[in-house]
Amino acid sequence: MTGGTGFIGSHLVEALHEKGTEVHCLIRNRNNLKWLRNLPIEWIEGDLKDKTSLLRAVKGVNQIFHLAGVTKAVNEETYYEVNAKGTKNLLDACLEGGSQIEKFIYLSSQAASGPCNNNGNKREDDPCHPVSPYGRSKRKGEEYLLEHLHEFPFLILRPSVVYGPRDRDVFAFFKILSKGINPIFSSPDQKISLCYVQDIVQGILLASESKDLRGEIFFLSDGHFYQMDQLGEIFAEVIGVKAYRIRIPFRFLYGVASFSEILSKVSQRPPLINRGKLEEMIQRNWVCDITKARTLLGFEPKISLREGIRLTYEWYRKENWL
Fold it and tell me: Quick one: which of 140, 136, 141, 142 has its CA closest to 218?
């Protein structure tokens, strides 16, 4: 597995361990084991840029879960080096030294497909129009796999916005709401899909257990859509706070994103928000259709939005994040 110490990856490692699966994780730094320190995992030091380490990592394994990726970066090139070229390097290592591999699961992103350009729900066979460097890099990773459609047993999963314990991106929204502020960044009619992390893990496991599927792409979400104008109110209601709406003008956000990118170049730390992320934020329709995952994988989300918010909030409180 790659990305095992990350937000989604750590939950997947725990789920595999509970099933009795022997897990090998590619990791760059053994000091960054986070939530997995006490699990019996075989750690393989390496990097997606280092083909030798990847050849070592794929040796003797029969399934690969590729979850590693960059969601924030100082330079746009980093997205492509990790998300696109890193995926190609891992694929090449599998083709060269992983003849025993039965399934390769690539966790892509809804951003790779881009927003839906009408009022419907985006489907897997709709044209891809990613609007950010991150989305374009994830789509390029998909394309590298699709070039080997008939010779390599892969499946591509595109989760929507994922939230849950250990996540730091949606955590920022919780933190602002806890202070009584409900920021509105987008147009009132913007719609998005969401999914609780354990349901995403369920989808990944179902994909890995599928017998005859290969070369397919699946969207994953909780099967509903949410109006961004109302989402903050739902979050605030569940966590028990009174939050006042504050609409943030696009020009202000663009200025913040531009300034953040300048500071990022100086500090060499990824910005909290960049213009690519802002471009994703202003799109009106980020709703995906999970009919295919339901039909072919048997995927059925179990955690409702309100229950997911409650579980996530309780975890943040327990860990003293809030």
Answer: 142
